[in-house]
Amino acid sequence: MKIDVKQISKYIWEIPKSGEMLVPGRIYADKELMEHLISDVEKGKEWNALVQVVNVACLPGIQKASIAMADIHPGYGFAIGAIGAFDTETGVISVAGVGFDCNCGVRTLRAQITRDDIKGKEEKLANELFMTIPAGLGSQGQIKLSLSEIDEVLIKGARFVVEHGYGWEEDLTYMEEEGCIKGADPKAVSYEAKQRQFKQIGTLGSGNHYLEVQYVSEIYDDVAAKVYGLFPNQILVSIHCGSRALGHQIGTDYLKILEAASRKYNIPIRERELVCAPFKSEEGKRYFSAINCGINAAFANRQALTHLTRKAFNSALNVDEKSIRTFYDIGHNTAKLEKHKVDGQMKNLIVHRKGATRAFGPGRPEVPDTYKSIGQPVLVGGTMGTCSYILHGTEQGMEEVFGTAVHGAGRVSSREQAKRRWRGTELVKQLQEQGIIIKGHSLPGVAEEAPGAYKDVTRVVDVVHNAGIAKKVVMTKPLISIKG
């Protein structure tokens, strides 16, 4: 498949509308990142991100453009790092636009201690976190739920966990949707999906999920950092995980349901995972309700892990649990109802973000009052051997990309390729020499997440910063990483 790509500014590339495309494709990247994507097409790789950008541009009701961020890499149906916004009257909802880990996202906590305060105690803290945080494939948490309680979690999200003593009301203030999205109907979720979640609230999981102790290594925007309560060398903790097995089962279940819906409503599908249904159809409404249940399960999961993190800090360092506050919690695998301006008019849209982070600008009602003057914090995870970033949303981002930014570095090597190239034991040793403690439940899992398997997160972040759709506030660097 030949794809014509035109550069329209230093950091924006466009695939012009042609054939069955209803809108153009738009990619935010620098020249080197773009050349890598074009090379995949020229080599004839069937599974490549630019073809997926084109495929999404063909779906009914899509608005403005099929958009991709600088961390783009191939996914199932939608590329990872992709955004597709659809009109709620004429558009569709797609499994591929959310993926199999609904509301996978990041919770960042900010402590009132510095890197110097924990110097010499890093190993003790790492061991305490490793023992306290359930992680790994099939891991089980402290919260064991009945069927009626799992339904309550799917409706209440993080609030359910707070009501049971795991955290405080203030935590909810600094979460996307205040930790509970409306429109969740547990009847839309299969018994099998619920059964898989009974023992998984408060677990990290495996793969690219992690809990990382970091410190603020550089401040780019003093005003924004002050509003966000961030200062040099401050200790932060970032928790990256999602809806665990429940979210995966929701995706599996609805792949079949929406495959049938695609045939029923005569929607041409260019890749199997792109199956979809009209948003207003019965199938579309059911899937949307199921997504909202998955979103709430992920919020609950990260809230429980926050509680356990506070306990570990208190046990290892005698740090007051109440001094470790939720900075922000945001997802990057979602489909959400939002209002955005299209062709000068506000429209109701169902915005799919697949490996892309909501990045709302100043003044939006969804942003906590404390942060409203700056815009929403955007949490961008790097790798366990490099760095991560906190950005803020901008008005330009609201206009151009439905208030969205990158979510991470983006893979350049598959998990299997990474395991063939790197060894977990060697990586742990190398990072230890750099002052970074890695505690992993699986050494092959550590190898999968080798820093070299990812793009340069600084290059990726610089694209969205220089393009103006989100702006850098601080860089953080890792001290301890707990891996599944």
Characterize the largest beta sheet: strand count, sense, and whether it forms a barrel.
Answer: 8 strands, mixed
Give the integer mean of the pLDDT values.
94
CATH superfamily of the domain at 105-184 and 202-243 and 300-329 and 357-483: tRNA-splicing ligase RtcB
CATH structural class of the domain at 105-184 and 202-243 and 300-329 and 357-483: Alpha Beta
Give the proportion of residues in helices: 25-40%
- What is the end-to-end distance? 38 Å
Our estimate of the beta-strand percent is 25-35%
- The appropriate CATH architecture of the domain at 105-184 and 202-243 and 300-329 and 357-483 is Alpha-Beta Complex
Output the CATH topology of the domain at 105-184 and 202-243 and 300-329 and 357-483: tRNA-splicing ligase RtcB
Per DSSP E runs of 2 or more residues, the count of β-strands stands at: 19
State the helix count.
15
Low-confidence stretches: none
Structural class of the helices, strands and pairings? alpha+beta
Which geometry do the CA atoms define?
A: globular
User: Cα-atom Rg, whole angstroms?
Assistant: 21 Å
